Amino acid sequence: MPKLSVFPKCYMDDLCVTRAMTLFDWIDLAATLGVDGLEMYPGFFASFEPDYVAKVKRYAEAKGLEIPMMCCSPDFTQHDAAERAKEIEKEKFWIDLTAQLGGRFCRVLSGQQRDDVSRADGVRYTIECIKEVIPYAAQRNIVLNMENHYKDGYWKYPEFAQRLDVFLEVVNQIDSPWFGVNFDPSNAIICGEDPLEVLAAVKHRVITMHASDRYLISGTIEDLKNQDGSMGYAKNLKHGVIGKGLNDYDAIFSTLRKEGFDSWISIEDGENGMEELRESVRFLRAKMAEHFG
């Protein structure tokens, strides 16, 4: 049976920008949800000193929560080799942080979709950087999980490899037991792609999953296909309770079960508050029991 973790979409600014909420406050709230673990983000941490990191790990464990995943956002699609080298060092730092917390998975991305970076260059930069990081991760027993991502909330531009053809061009050239896919069905929707078609293309590489749902507040799916993919999120899509949006979780979980998936599913929900997050947990627990139990 896969395990369920949670990511505090509703408290990102409180944790990362205003610091109105501490990481310990969030752990206390998460412990009331009935999940197995927490997905972390570097911005949540008030310090990276070993004593503080160890305290976070102990605090989560005392609440019965594992910390399996680190959601970080390296930005490899930059022409300047020195800047790419800095991003590699950041990713290594986050890998170390994941290991200190007892985690297993550390996210890796391509980078931002800059106008001056061609597809060929962006793909090459991404592959070179990830391949450089993999041995470092392997030494620490950490697996890199590349997400079919749309946009880090604190980036200016969307993900370079947000569309399936570009994403596949990257992941199909990286063959390592220390590298796989973090599948996010909602990110496919934002790009105007069919989540089930994306999953079909990467199902044999999926090692973790983000569970979220989106619903249209205006327009149609066709409108998403015609957006220019520039700055910001799609305006006609909103997060909502998982199971009430556009994603078909029966089809998603059925596909993953056939592939033998038995890892972590991390909830990205709660933009509208904790009660919706609780609804999402209940929905996913029931669906996981139905398909994996």
Structure description:
The protein is of the alpha/beta class. The chain has a single domain (3-292), classed as Divalent-metal-dependent TIM barrel enzymes (TIM Barrel, Alpha-Beta Barrel), CATH 3.20.20. 42% of the residues lie in helices and 16% in strands. The protein has helices at 12-16, 23-30, 50-62, 81-100, 119-139, 164-171, 185-190, 195-202, 221-225, 249-258, 274-292, and strands at residues 3-8, 37-40, 66-70, 105-108, 143-147, 179-183, 206-211, 214-216, 237-239, 264-269. It has an eight-stranded parallel barrel, surrounded by five helices. Strands 8-9 form a two-stranded antiparallel sheet. Helix 5 crosses helix 6 and helix 10 (249-258) packs across helix 11. The radius of gyration is 18 Å and the shape is globular.
- SS strand fraction: 15-25%
CATH topology: TIM Barrel
Tell me about the biggest sheet?
8 strands, parallel, barrel
List low-pLDDT spans: 228-233
Name the average pLDDT: 93
Task: Please provide the ordered H/E string of secondary-structure elements.
Answer: EHHEHEHEHEHEHHEEHEHEH
How does the helix and strand content classify structurally?
alpha/beta
CATH superfamily: Divalent-metal-dependent TIM barrel enzymes
The level-1 CATH class = Alpha Beta
Radius of gyration: 18 Å
Please give the share of residues in helix: 40-55%
End-to-end CA span: 6 Å
Count of separate DSSP helical elements: 11
The count of strands amounts to 10
| CATH architecture label name | Alpha-Beta Barrel
Count of structural domains: 1
Widest β-sheet, arrangement of strands: 1-2-3-4-5-6-7-10
Shape descriptor: globular
